[in-house]
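Database export, one record per block. Field names are fixed; values are copied verbatim from the stored entry.
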Amino acid sequence: MRMRILALLGAFLLIGGSVAAAVLVKGAERHVVKPDIPGTPYIDVLSPRDGEKPHSNAVVVKVKVHNFTLAPAQFGKTPQLGEGILRFSLNKVPDSADQSQLERANSPLGSGRVIGRSFDFPKFAGPNGTLGARLHADGQYSPATLPQMYYHDLPTGLFRLIITLGQNDGTPTPYHTVTHFRIE
């Protein structure tokens, strides 16, 4: 009888531990919207996560690109299927935006966007901003051939970052993602 109770207690602890581990792992997952069609390119934002509050006035953006190859050696050349660059576009949401405008701005349809000042200039985007200026894209986007970007000297406020896959010549593709973060 004692062995039976110990066996039941052991089984109970094993099941309880498995359930707890599954709940913790599930809670730690990032929300990534994968496309319905296999093989379609998409971008996973590793940092900053949507709604994150960085501890300084700088942010390191890191992404993972799926089903698309970043091709630094082909930058500025003829577009090739399935390869290219990243286009980072950072804008500050105006402080005057009210809650209803922010909710419309976050709608899946993208209508009612609240777009403020751009930070895609060499002063804020460093070498990527300088490259954007050479391409006459400063204030529009900062091109990148690596899956990361560094913005610095940002003022306090809410920011909207749009990351778009671009062809080798910089032309945007329809594949993009959006994240928001707040500098305090």
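Remark 1: The two ends are 62 Å apart (CA to CA).
Remark 2: Residues 60 and 150 are 5 Å apart (CA to CA).
End of record.
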